[in-house]
Amino acid sequence: MFSNFKRLKTGAVVALAFFSLPVAGQDLLARQAPLDKKMRAVDSVALQRLVGEEQLENPAFGLYPDWNNQYAHHYDVELPEEYKIDLRHFCMPTPSTRITSNYGYRASFGRQHKGLDIKVYIGDTIRAAFSGKVRIVNYERRGYGKYIVIRHPNGLETIYGHLSKHLVKENQIVHAGEPIGLGGNTGRSTGSHLHFETRFLGQAINPAEMFDFVAQDVTGDYYIFRSHKSKASSADKSSTTRPKPVARPRTKVHRVKAGESLSVIAAKRGTTVSKLCKLNGITRKTILRPGQILKYS
User: Fold this and answer.
1) Is the residue at 136 inside a domain?
2) Counting CB atoms within 10 angstroms of each CB, which of 21, 33, 72, 173 has the fewest?
3) Is 65 a domain residue?
4) Does 122 fall in a domain?
5) Does 43 map to a domain?
6) Same domain, yes or no, for 127 and 263?
7) Do 240 and 265 belong together in one domain?
8) Are residues 103 and 191 in the same domain?
C-alpha cells in the first residue's frame, strides 16, 4: 500500500509541475514530440534533395572513369558482368510512335545501326529521356548532324541525333521531359527524324528493349545489362549485351526475321494477323523489315 501511495504522490508532483508551467511552456511541451517528428521528416527530404542534386551534378560517377565533352563510343573500363538500370522517372523523347529504322545491321549501308530512327518533323520538340547532365552538344557533318549526349545517374547515356537546333549547353543539368532540341534533318540523314541511342559505358543497347514507342512507355521498371562475360549471355557471343527487361513487363515483342510474313509470325506466336495489325498500327499490306520489332501480346 505504501508503494502505491508513493507512486501516486510522484505522479501528482509531476502533474503539478506541468500545470504550474506557464501556458506557453505547456504548449511547447505538448508540441515537442510531433515537432521533432516533422523536423526529422524535413531533414530526410533535405538529405534526399542533396543526394539527388549530387547525382545530377556527377551522374554515374562510380561507373565512368571521367567526364569530358568529347564523344566516346567505348570507355577504357571493365564492364560489370551485370548491372541493374533504373528506368523509372522516364519521359519519352518524342510523342511520335513511328519507327522508320530499327536497331541492327543495315545491309544497304553494310554496317550496324546503333539506335532507333523515330519519325519527327523539323521543329518538333525533343525531350530528355531521363534527368541528367549534358555531356556533349556538337555537330557532325557526316554523321549525327547536330546532336546531344546526356549522361544519367542510372548509368545510361542517351544520344539524340539529326537535330535542327540545340536548346541546351554542355555541362547543363536537365530533367526528364525538359526540351533539349528540335527535330531536324542534319548530318547523314535522308529525311527528318530523331536518331535515338541508349548506351551503357559506351556499349550500345537496343532502345526498343527499354522503350516501347508505340505504347509510349518503358518495358519495365528496371533493365538488366549483362556483359559478354556473363554466364547468362555466354550462348550469344556475337552480342555485347543480352537485354532482359524485368519487374514490370507490359508487352511481348517479336523481332522480324528475313522472309517472315505476318501470317508466319502470327502462327509462331499463337495469335492472329488482325491482332498483330491492331497492336502495331499496321495493315496486312505493310512490308516487314528484318530486325523490325512487332508487339504480339
Assistant:
1) yes
2) 33
3) no
4) yes
5) yes
6) no
7) no
8) yes
Look-up: residue for cell 544520344? 159
Nearest to 17 by CA among 7, 29, 5, 6: 29
CB neighbours of 142 closer than 8 A, spacing ≥ 6?
187, 188
Tell me which amino acid residue 193 is.
H
Which residues make Cβ contacts (< 8 Å) with residue 97, sequence separation at least 6?
213, 214, 216, 281
Q: Which three cell numbers stand for residue 177?
A: 521531359
pLDDT per residue over 62-104, tens digit each?
A: 899 889 888 766 677 888 999 999 998 899 999 999 998 888 8
Residues 122 and 191 in one domain: yes
| CATH code (residue 256) | 3.10.350.10
Number of folded domains that form the chain? 3
CATH number for the domain that contains residue 243: 2.70.70.10
Instruction: Mention every residue, 6+ apart, whose C-beta is less than 8 A from residue 213.
Output: 92, 96, 97, 98, 99, 116, 118
User: Using one digit for the tens of pLDDT, what is the confidence trace for 171-202?
Assistant: 999 999 999 999 999 998 888 999 999 999 98
From CA 193, how far away is CA 173, in angstroms rounded?
A: 25
pTM: 0.63
Q: How far apart are CA 195 and CA 189, in angstroms?
A: 9
Task: Say if residue 5's pLDDT is above 90.
Answer: no
pLDDT band at 44 (very low <50, low <70, confident <90, very high): low
Q: Within 10 A of 82 (CB to CB), how many other CB atoms are there?
A: 15
